C-alpha cells in the first residue's frame, strides 16, 4: 500500500491506473476506521482492480458548534487497517491543499434530501459533504464509490449529486454491518450502559417488525411507524425521530409504495443511536 | 461529423475515444455560431485528436427578465458550420435530459468573480453557467475546454470552477477575434448605425492606449482608467463601465501589478458593446 498526501502524486498514480485500463474502487472516509469502513474496502477490493481509500477530516461538513478539532484521529492505526483490507492507495490530503486560498470561488448547495432525519439539525453539513466529495471524485476518478447504508441520508445526497451532475461513477450502497443480535455497529455503542446495550437491539427489531407488517399487507404509514414506535418505547432511550420517506428522494409518503426508508434516532444516556431499513415494496411483491 | 442528442449515445462515444487514448477538445456553445465560436473550434482541432462541440441554450443561465425563448437558434446552419470547422461530434442535448425531474437536488453557487462587470446586473447568471458546464464537463470529459476572452468574466468563473473542484481539464482562453480596424467581432455589431460603426473601434483603441501607458511606467489605476475613458467619451456611446481588476480573481487593484483586466461596456443607440484587454505586468517587465 502507498500512502499519498500530495495531490499531484495522486493524480499521477490515477493517470497510470487509467492508462492500464484498471477499474478504481473508492472508499472516502474521515478515518478512525471501524468495521463499517473495512466492509466497504472489502467490497471495493472484490469488485475493482484497484482500491483507493481517502482519510480526510473535512472541515466544511462540521458546523460551528460541532467539534472538528476533537474529531478522533489515528492515522497509524488506520494505515495498518487499510493495508490489511487490501487498499492500494491511502490518500491523506492536507486541508490547505483541499481548500487552497482564503475563500472558495464556487460552492455547492444540496437543495433536497437534507432537511429531514439527521440533516434537519445539521444545516450546511451535506453541502460540505457534497463539496469535498466533488473534489475527491474529480481527483480519484473512481469507477465505483462505496458508502455505508448506516448513513442512508448521505447515500441519498451522494446519489443526487452523482445524478444531477452526470458524474460517471457507480454509487455502491453497502448494507449496515450488525452485531449478532442485530444492533448496528457503531463506535458509539461503547457509550451504552450494560442495561442499554441489552435494550439497543430493539431498534433494529422495531424496524424489522414494521417491514414485516408491510410485507403482510399494511399500507398505512401511520400504522407502520406506530408499530416501530411501540417497540422502541419499551427501551429507556428517548426517541428523537421515527420517520418514513421515499428513498432515495426522502419525500414524505402518503401511502406505502415503491422504495422507502424507515429511520430512527434514539438518545440513550450517553449515546445517540441511529438505524434504518430500506424497504422496497416492488421487490416484496415480486417475492 | 456525428450529431448526437441522446446523452447515453454521447457517453458511449466518449468511452470509445478514451479507450483509444484520444485527447478531447471541447467547445461548449449556445449555438447561432459566429466566427468567435469557429476560432475556438479551429484551435481545438489543432490541439486535440477529437473535437466535440455542444449547442445547448441553457435555461439556468437566463434571468427571469432575460429572453430565453427569443434566443436565436438555427441548428441546421450551425451543424454545417461545425462540420466545416472539423468538429467530430456536435452534441445537442434536450433541456429535459440536461435538467431531468422537477427540481434540482444539488446546485452550484459562484461566490466570487461574479459581482463585477457584466455579472453585476445578471444575478444567478454565472451559477447557471457553472451548473451546465459541470454537467457538460462530466459528460464530455474533455482534455481541454475552449472559451473566448471576449467574455473574460466567464473565463474567470470557469477557471474558479475548474480549480476549486480539481477538474482534470485544461482551460484554454482564446483571444478575442477582431475586425481589421480592431473592433471585437460580435453578432451585435450589425445593430450599429454607419456613424457608430466608425466610432466603435475606439473602444479597443482606448484599451490599447491604457495598456501602452502602463507599459510606459504608469502605475496609478485611476490614471489608466482615465486615459481609456477620455477616448471613449469622444464617441456617441454611453459608458456603462470602465473597470480594472486583477485577473482572473476580479478583485479591485490599488496599484498596477501582476495580471489585470481592463474592461469596458458602452451602450450605442441599439447595441451595447463590450470589450476588454488582459494586461500582464510581469510579461511586460520581462520584455
UniProtKB/TrEMBL annotation, chains A, B:
One Pfam family matching this protein: Pantoate_ligase
Protein localization: Cytoplasm
Residues reported to bind (R)-pantoate: 61, 154
Amino-acid positions noted as binding ATP in the UniProt annotation, renumbered to this chain: 30-37, 148-151, 177, 185-188
Active site annotation, chain numbering: 37 (proton donor)
CDD domains the record matches: PanC
Highest taxon in the source lineage: Bacteria
Gene Ontology molecular function, alphabetical: ligase activity
UniProt-listed Enzyme Commission number(s): 6.3.2.1
Reaction equation(s) it catalyzes: (R)-pantoate + beta-alanine + ATP = (R)-pantothenate + AMP + diphosphate + H(+)
Record has Repressor as a keyword: no
Enzyme class of the recorded protein, top EC level: ligase
Binding-site residues, beta-alanine: 61
Primary site of residence: cytoplasm
Assigned keywords, A-Z: ATP-binding, Cytoplasm, Ligase, Nucleotide-binding, Pantothenate biosynthesis
Pathway(s) annotated for this protein in UniProt: Cofactor biosynthesis; (R)-pantothenate biosynthesis; (R)-pantothenate from (R)-pantoate and beta-alanine: step 1/1
InterPro entries reported for this sequence: Cyt_trans-like (IPR004821), Pantoate_ligase (IPR003721), Pantoate_ligase_C (IPR042176), Rossmann-like_a/b/a_fold (IPR014729)
Keyword Protein biosynthesis annotated: no
Family affiliation: Belongs to the pantothenate synthetase family.
Note from the entry: The reaction proceeds by a bi uni uni bi ping pong mechanism.
Function of the molecule: Catalyzes the condensation of pantoate with beta-alanine in an ATP-dependent reaction via a pantoyl-adenylate intermediate.
Assembly and oligomerization: Homodimer.
UniProt protein name: Pantothenate synthetase
